[in-house]
Amino acid sequence: MLMNNLDPEVAERPDDLVVYGGTGKAARDWPSFEAICRTLRALEDDETLLVQSGKPVGVFATHPDAPRVLIANANLVPRFATWEIFRDLERRGLIMYGQMTAGSWIYIGSQGILQGTYETFGAVAKARFGGSLRGRIVLTGGLGGMGGAQPLAATMNDGICLAIDVDPARVQRRLETRYLDRATSSVDEALAWCAEAKQRGSALSVGLVGNCADVLPALVRRGFTPDVVTDQTSAHDTLNGYVPAGIPPAEAAELRKSAPDDYVQRARASIATHVHAMLALQQRGAVAFAIPGFVPEYIRPLFCEGKGPFRWVALSGEANDLHRTDRLALELFPDNDHLRRWITMAQRRVAFQGLPARICWLGQGERAKFGVALNDLVKRGEVTAPIVIGRDHLDTGSVASPFRETEAMRDGSDAIADWAILNALLNTASGASWVSFHHGGGVGIGNSLHAGQVIVADGTAAARKRLERVLTNDPGIGVARHADAGYPEAIETARRHHIRLPMSGDLD
What we know:
17 strands, globular
């Protein structure tokens, strides 16, 4: 999975070990990468490798049910958790930015964020547009590892997506992987295509090569107002994640090295211009949700049911193995029409990047049921190799991020990171194959702490027990976290699934 993260079909800049999100890396440097691989090949079943910010630092005797790898990325003492201090440490080779799934070795390309984006757009459609984005235009920025999912997520909801990115190579990549339908560098041509699709009521995604800080203000001046405006540029990283207006990407790369302070100042000015244009579109009636509010309104109800971005990967590399797991999902949950629609569309429209993989949002009880069934597939030989099961760190109980996942918690606990730490500890105790704890993913240094787990279904009886524990407890702590915050839906989910909450007398 470490190697899959750096597959050229998967990673943004594999030669630099960058997987996605501007600087999200799989290993600190190439010697560290080689040492990790060498150590994993020799690791015994009762040993655990420790990885500190992408560098292997020790192997210790543990036991067969312990994780084989424990990973910590970019974690800083809170007083020192600033970009300036982080970048100084990074330049000195002491730390690495792991984003979420880059440094935890479970990134699967743009599909990894696709269903979450699909679910979000679907929730927007349900709340604002009668259940469909048909005839609606979604305007957004960013076509990198995460943002690249937006065009396909919009068209899967029958909408029209106009996606802007400053890098022509990213736009071309999304065309090649079928996440985009068309591309142009002409604003006039892009708007004409969108207007035609809107008139016909047909789904369409358009990639526009340009800088959001230039294009969005121009659209405001033209009087163009989309139905939805959002953003997935890496604006949280002003040095490596956002290209200032008026500078071609190649020149920006040079300026980033030669004058980083000047670069950051220019980037911040461009980001401000970009956001002001989004706000102007919002004032004209566009639904805006890169601006705070999308998680409380659209995602938190799913979190309260223990639902989140569950994913699995066929280690054989065989598409037929992945297709068998798709059928298994439909067999296990025959009454879930939403899941059936998602799997059917994903089979038809989602191109694999690297090893064949699938993502779908499963809730409390469903994850364990499916994980155990996957293990049984391996045992019976219905797939030709083990299946890796993981998730994004953006999950129900694994992240503290006051500007995104934990924004506006009912009890005001937005910034409390205990839950993310407890998630990592619980997954370690439960027997996940590898467990990670990171700082700064998605929103930047100083703004989030989050945990990840991955577990392998190898067909053995021991794996079956571990799978049931991990895939019950991992979402279960998310249900507990939201129940503790006072969400009635989470309290009901805890009751239904017999999750013991000591402070709730009726659930003991």
